[in-house]
Amino acid sequence: MDAASASSSAAAGPSSSSGAEPPAAAAVQPPKVAPLVQLQAPQQLQRGAAAASGSGGVGCRHHAYSRKQKSLGLLCSNFVALYDREDVETIGLDDAAKRLGVERRRIYDIVNVLESVGILVRRAKNRYTWLGFEGVPAAMKELKERALREMSGSAVLPPMEESSTANLSDDEDDEKLGDADEDADSEKLSQSMDNTSDKPDAPSCRLRSDHRKEKSLGLLTQNFVKLFLTMEVETVSLDEAARLLLGEGHAESNMRTKVRRLYDIANVLSSLNLIEKIQQADTRKPAFRWLGQAKRKQENDFMVAQPPARPSKRAFGTDLTNIDNKRGRFDSTTENKPKLMLGAGNIVKSFERQLGQGNKNDFVYGPFHPAVAKKQETGDHAVKQQERKSIEDWENLAVSFRPQYQNQALNDLFGHYVEAWKSWYLDLTRETSS
DNA sequence: CGATCCCGCCAAACG
DNA sequence: CGTTTGGCGGGATCG
Questions:
Q1: pLDDT in the model for residue A257
Q2: What are the φ/ψ torsions at residue A218 (nearest 5 degrees)?
């Protein structure tokens, strides 16, 4: 059973007579396909300080095919560089694909995650609106609120294991609550869409459809981010993430696919500087840390695949991997299983208040004060980014917010919460509205 | 060798 | 029906 794929099989069969797909570049390189190596700004991209560094010629150094040149991360950077202008505001998918010199398919990938983070909004078929990085904070806030809300809903349930436990899947965002900012997300996104007063005559039409959206990259991105927004210890390995976002049923193959998707997402998020890849101190396991503030690559200009010379630290993937500077806290020494915050309902209450309040992070809350509200970089290169009315790290604050338990017992207790989480996350993912 | 993740087939979701 | 959107997983690359 297991509907799902089964079919496919396809077997790739790279044979696929190239034919006339790839525009330009018809050099049948030794290695497999090797379509085009061009890229480079076709249109008039900004040039700024480009030139400079010696050879202006792009990709003259035929080097065979490098996947790094076509990574989603790089593509995302280019995408941003291309559209993060003041005047830009409407984007056409085909146009983007053409300008960036990639297949349509890839644009969908980028766009989907960008929308999940609030940088874009879908207006209509083939048309997106650019909101820019200013849209991120709002989206984050929204995500966090939702996550918190859902969490409190079904966090402390007794045993309960197997899925399919009718659960009040919350849902939906409340829209227009104040009216400060015009917010971002509107329709689409967010799961659950029961049909109240469905159309006339809709016999037995279970909502089996939507299965597409459940697995969507957009939703996965949101859940991935939610993880960061509500978890203490800000580092997660994709493996853990997949396990968390996936139900208990750890279908090996299912997991593999999920991880693949997470890699994609992580790449894009990295290029946006929302997260960063790091090496777990002790473990050699690579993981990701939430950076919070989206920031555009300081370097303007497109970054076409850089020749094997001056790599200039890429978002990640290339050298330069901080060795995890975990908060100087002797906490969990046992293992770094992601622990979720979520303790007394009070804490949640506090957050709600904080969020509802709006800004002003001066308040002091109860017993635990914001210990490390300043999360500064590790003195890496000083990157001064002028942020318009920086939207604050209400987010950072929140993270450093949770009390530090020195009691191992409590730490242990969290383990159970993880269980609970898995449950509701599962529900949240496979939605089974009655 | 295992971790990473690009490519693009091909099927749902819309017109 | 043609298009647009986008799961999904083979398998090439990277480290």
A1: 94
A2: -65, -50
Q: Is the CB of A255 under 7 A from strand B?
A: no
| Residue A213 confidence (pLDDT) | 84
For chain A, the structural domain boundaries read 61-147+216-293+311-326+342-376+386-429
Confidence check: pLDDT of A357 > 50: no
Q: Could you check: is the Cβ of residue A73 within 7 Å of any atom of nucleic acid strand B?
A: yes
- In whole angstroms, how large is the CA radius of gyration of chain A? 23
Please, which residues bridge with residue A130 across strands? A120
Distances (CA, A) of A336 to A225, A280, A400, A430: 19, 9, 17, 28
Confidence check: pLDDT of A412 > 50: no
Positions of strand B less than 7 angstroms from a protein CB: 3-15
Whether the CB of A106 is less than 7 Å away from nucleic strand B comes out as yes
Give the protein-side footprint of strand C (Cβ within 7 Å): A 4-5, 8, 10-12, 14, 31-32, 65-68, 93, 104-105, 108, 111-112, 125-126, 212-213, 215-218, 253, 257, 260-261, 317-318
Phi/psi at A340 (nearest 5 deg)?
-105, 140
- CB of A15 nearer than 7 A to strand B: no
| pLDDT tens digits, A210-250 | 778 888 999 999 999 999 998 877 789 999 899 888 877 77
Mean pLDDT of A332-347: 43
pLDDT of A339 reads 54
Distance A188 CA to B7 C1' (A): 28
CB neighbourhood size of A40 (10 A): 13
Amino acid symbol at A226: K
Instruction: Pick the more confident residue, A198 or A250.
Output: A250
Side-chain-side CA neighbours of A276 within 13 Å: the count stands at 21
Measure A339 CA to B8 C1' (Å).
38
